[in-house]
Design brief:
Blueprint: E1 2-7, H1 14-25, E2 28-31, H2 32-46, H3 53-61, E3 65-67, E4 76-78, E5 81-82, H4 90-93, H5 96-100, H6 103-122, E6 127-132, H7 135-139, E7 145-150, H8 153-165, H9 170-187, E8 201-204, H10 210-224
Parallel strand pairs: 1-6, 1-7, 2-6, 7-8
Antiparallel strand pairs: 3-4, 4-5
Helix pairs in contact: 1-10, 2-3, 3-6, 8-9
The protein binds cytidine-5'-monophosphate.
Subcellular location: Cytoplasm
Family: Belongs to the TRAFAC class TrmE-Era-EngA-EngB-Septin-like GTPase superfamily. EngA (Der) GTPase family. Belongs to the cytidylate kinase family. Type 1 subfamily.
Organism: Xylanimonas cellulosilytica (strain DSM 15894 / JCM 12276 / CECT 5975 / KCTC 9989 / LMG 20990 / NBRC 107835 / XIL07)
């Protein structure tokens, strides 16, 4: 049984790397960013005004979410509807920080995430890789492995442009710059995820390709197993 916690900013590669690490080690995979995205979509659909902190917190507390933990296909559902694609839309991406900076929402999702991690350890799986912004510090500070996956701003913008636009020429990078940097700035008002906390190992992927980054994370895991 192992808990691997991986945090990092947008475009650090943490989702694809965490998924691949979970696959190779035969572990469950928890994408906590997808939970904040699902909470945002649910609040948009049911609470309306995202600046109404109490209404948003109440909506999220009751959200009928199903959380997929399969690294090959982490399907998220709201009210039995597959929202795995919708939660990646620009409408959600541009508003997610408003919901993620709501402290009552954070408390609700933290509890859900801790329950998911505990259930995975009690269940059939060999353990879980949980990734996000505050997993190493708040959600699972006692995780067996705690990693901060970072990358230079330039590398992060290039990767996000490739993800979103399928190419990383200057116009594509410019188009993602505002969204990525604004989200990181807004997120960092309520949590620190750019500097590693005590005991958290930093893996800088700026000059590593995908496979090298996966190997770097697996090497950190190997040290504790
Ligand atoms: O990782 P991803 O880009 O999907 O995360 C979306 C948003 O969810 C982040 O910008 C942040 O606002 C929020 N988030 C968070 N805490 C986490 C994971 C994500 O606040 N543990």
């Amino acid at each position: 049984m192992i808990v691997i916690a991986i945090d990092g900013p947008s475009g650090s590669g943490k989702s694809s790397v965490s998924k691949e690490v979970a696959r190779r080690l035969g572990l469950a995979y928890l994408d906590t960013g997808a939970m904040y995205r699902a909470a945002t979509l649910w609040a948009q659909q049911t609470a309306g005004d995202l600046t109404d902190q109490a209404a948003v917190a109440a909506a999220v507390e009751d959200m009928p979410i199903a959380i997929g933990l399969d690294p090959d296909e982490p399907v998220f559902e709201l009210d039995d509807v597959d929202v795995s694609e919708t939660i990646r839309s620009t409408e959600v991406s541009t508003e997610v920080s408003k919901v993620a900076t709501n402290l009552a929402v954070r408390a609700t999702l933290r509890k859900m995430q801790q329950d998911v991690i505990a259930a995975a350890l009690d269940g059939d799986s060999e353990g879980i890789v949980a990734e996000g912004r505050d997993i190493t510090t708040v959600v699972a500070p006692d995780a067996d492995v705690r990693i901060l996956l970072t990358a230079s701003e330039e590398a992060r913008l290039r990767r996000r442009a490739l993800d979103v636009h399928g190419e990383a020429h200057e116009a594509a990078v410019d188009a993602t710059r505002d969204q990525v940097l604004r989200r990181d700035r807004d997120d960092s008002t309520v949590m620190e995820f750019q500097v590693a906390a005590d005991g958290v190992v930093t893996v800088d992927s700026s000059d590593l390709d995908f496979e090298q980054t996966v190997q770097a994370v697996l090497a950190v895991v190997a040290q504790v197993t």
